[in-house]
Amino acid sequence: MDPEKPEWLIQMEGILETINEGVIIADDCAHIVFANTNFAQMTGRTAHELVGKDATHFYSPEESAILMKQREQGLRDGHNRFEFVVPRKDGTRLPVIISSRGIEDPDGRQFGIITFTDISEQKEAETRLRDVNRKLEERQHEIEEDLALAARVQQSLAPQSLVWGGVRVEAYFHPVRTIGGDFGLVDPLDHDHLNLLVCDVSGHGIGSALVANRIYTETMAQLRSAAPLGNILRQLNTFVMHNIGSAVFFFTVAAARLDRNGRRMIFAGAGHPPAMVVTPGEEPVLLESRSMVLGALPEAVDSEATLDVSLSAGDRVVLYTDGITDVFNSQGDMLGVSGVQKIVRETALEPFSEMKQGILDRVAAWREGPPSDDVSLVILEVL
Questions:
Q1: Of 150, 222, 301, 323, which sits with the fewest C-beta atoms within 10 Å of its C-beta?
Q2: Predicted confidence band at 246 (pLDDT cuts at 50, 70, 90)?
Q3: Pick from 246, 249, 236: which is nearest to 203 by CA?
Q4: Which helix (H) or strand (E) is 227 found in, with range?
């Protein structure tokens, strides 16, 4: 038996050597009287190099000051636990959790039992996680910048309000996310004809927006070829099936072509909510789609795809996507076509310049919560 060691310490040494953590025992002067093998391995020193040294001996002055404060707190509370480091012989610092507790031996002397839990793997994992999070933040920033640019590009393609020949047009586009799958067109074909169109690609977000922008480009090319609207629908259907071909995406269209005085309109719809023609004070007339949704079936377009509609001065035409109809109130009731028909009838009594906002405000008043779908709206008045 070592005469310098208290008997209780000698009895504890065997137990302390079986503990997976580093352990030291320090006297009331903070000198180390025992260090187990695990603690010695943590420091890269031998127990002989540690025993007899002040517990702060291997620390820097700044670290020692922190340790003294923690020791004082431990003396007040009887125990303490904090995150710190163990200085190693090679000059590195091992991250640890230090737990200390005071004891009194049979002779009334005060000692501290201090355990050191190695948290280097946890710290390495935290460092890796921080690196990953930093890279994710950088990537998120890049994505947000790309989306902001895509949104500006898509907004630049949004239909513009105009006065043309014997008609005037108001248009609106709003994606439910940064970019969306809806688009609208207000495009003079030539001196004598004006094309109006709204399109709704299934889904939301980036994929739908990319498909919508590609369909937009093809639609513009088809419209400017002056082909009949039925033929344009067939070409768009074939184009998407051959070039994009996916069970995920399909799209619907409502298109109109007016002559310069606005008295004659050719209408074609494919799987789209019905367009509406309203004379102020009267019930809106529904122009139903004769063709099915596009992009899914080769024979989606009806052989008689178009309607020939006569218009009069004061008549208004409303084209929209299902972001207008497919909204629900707090009771779970959908606005639907009949609800939009009522709104169109009411707002047609307002000045044309106020009708678009009137429709949007009434739809928002019906809807519970924020929009859940992209919205495109094009309205026309015959002068």
A1: 150
A2: low
A3: 249
A4: none
Beta bridge partners of 253: 199, 270
3-state helix, strand, coil in the chain (%, to 5): 35, 30, 35
Whether pLDDT at 4 is above 90: no
pLDDT digits (tens, 9 = 90+) for 106-123: 888 889 899 999 999 999
Read off the amino acid at residue 297: L
Short-list 350, 359, 356, CA closest to 379: 356
Residue 1, pLDDT score: 42
Amino acid found at 212: A
> Helix 352-366 crosses helix 336-347 at what angle (to 10 degrees)?
140
Confidence of residue 376 (pLDDT cuts 50, 70, 90): very high
> Which residue, 338, 346, 349, 344, is CA-closest to 379?
344
User: Locate tokens 């890279």: which residue?
Assistant: 135
Angle at 155 between CA 151 and CA 158, to 5 degrees: 145
Beta-carbon-side half-sphere exposure of residue 44 (alpha carbons within 13 Å): 10
Give 62-91 pLDDT, tens digit per residue. 999 998 888 888 878 878 899 999 999 999
CB 278, CB 379: distance < 8 Å: no
Give one DSSP letter per residue of 253-275, joined into a string.
EEEEEEETTSSEEEEEEESPPPE
Instruction: Report helix, strand or coil for 178.
Output: coil
How are strands ordered across the β-sheet holding 22-27?
32-35, 22-27, 110-118, 93-104, 79-87
Quickly count: other Cβ atoms within 10 Å of residue 318's Cβ.
26
pTM higher than 0.90 for the full model?
Answer: no
